[in-house]
Structures are given as structure tokens and as C-alpha cells.
């Protein structure tokens, strides 16, 4: 039967609780970093919105800012 189905593969030992918590904390840290980057971009777009006159240019900047807000909300 081993010729047809093959032999069992050796499995890696399951991760320890400490390993799992470390991975979770790293994931949380990366999400926090991404949110900080998005906040910086939002601040930049807010300044651009204040400086531009009402019209299509300001609407384009607002659309970009809304896209960034949606990304931030997703995280």
C-alpha cells in the first residue's frame, strides 16, 4: 500500500503557546505601524484640502482621503 499512497510525512511539532502569542503580538504591532502611516497620510491630505480651492482638484484629494479612511477602518 505504501507504494500506492506513500508513507506518512513527519509532522512538525505544534507551536507552543509562547510562539503563538509572539506571532499575535507581532501581527498587532505591524497593524499599528500601518495605521500610523495611514494617519500621517490623512494629515497630509487634510492640509492639501485646506490649501486647495473648491472644485475638481479638491474633490480628487477628498476622494483619496476617503480611500485612506476606508483602509484604516479595515485595519
From TrEMBL:
Region (Disordered): 1-23
Listed GO biological process terms: vacuolar transport
InterPro entries noted in UniProt: Snf7_fam
Domain of life: Eukaryota
The protein's name in its UniProt record: Charged multivesicular body protein 5
Amino acid at each position: 500500500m505504501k507504494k500506492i499512497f506513500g508513507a506518512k510525512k513527519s509532522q512538525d511539532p505544534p507551536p507552543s503557546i509562547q510562539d503563538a502569542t509572539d506571532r499575535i503580538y507581532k501581527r498587532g504591532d505591524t497593524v499599528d505601524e500601518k495605521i500610523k502611516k495611514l494617519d500621517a497620510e490623512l494629515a497630509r491630505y487634510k492640509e492639501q484640502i485646506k490649501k486647495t480651492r473648491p472644485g475638481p482638484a479638491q474633490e480628487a484629494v477628498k476622494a483619496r482621503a476617503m480611500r485612506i479612511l476606508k483602509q484604516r477602518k479595515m485595519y
